């Protein structure tokens, strides 16, 4: 069973934007992404292509484009969108009563 930790209010993540968190002093920061439909996704904050900070990328639909080379990552799966290849670790996230909870 996954244990969730309250991270922030949903309002603290900009729509079609991201917020970087580092729960528990992890070595790799996690980017929380919020879509225009208020869905929230959590991915490690680094692109598998050149290591760019995905949190600085453009969120569109259910994906984020890396700011370095426009490498597109599916927010739900962490998989690169074709024709690109690669994978970013995803983390379970829930929104409860306007608060964002992240599985550790």
TrEMBL record:
Gene3D superfamilies: Rieske [2Fe-2S] iron-sulphur domain. It is an enzyme of class 1 (oxidoreductase). Residues 5-102 form the Rieske domain. InterPro entries: Rieske-like_NirD, Rieske_2Fe-2S, Rieske_2Fe-2S_sf. The keyword Glycosyltransferase does not apply. GO terms for molecular function: 2 iron, 2 sulfur cluster binding; metal ion binding; nitrite reductase (NADH) activity. Its EC number is 1.7.1.15. It holds the Pfam family Rieske_2. PROSITE patterns: RIESKE. Keywords: 2Fe-2S, Iron, Iron-sulfur, Metal-binding, Nitrate assimilation, Oxidoreductase. One of its GO terms (biological process) is nitrate assimilation. It comes from the Bacteria. The keyword Iron applies. This is Nitrite reductase (NADH) small subunit. The lineage of its organism: Bacteria, Pseudomonadati, Pseudomonadota, Betaproteobacteria, Neisseriales.
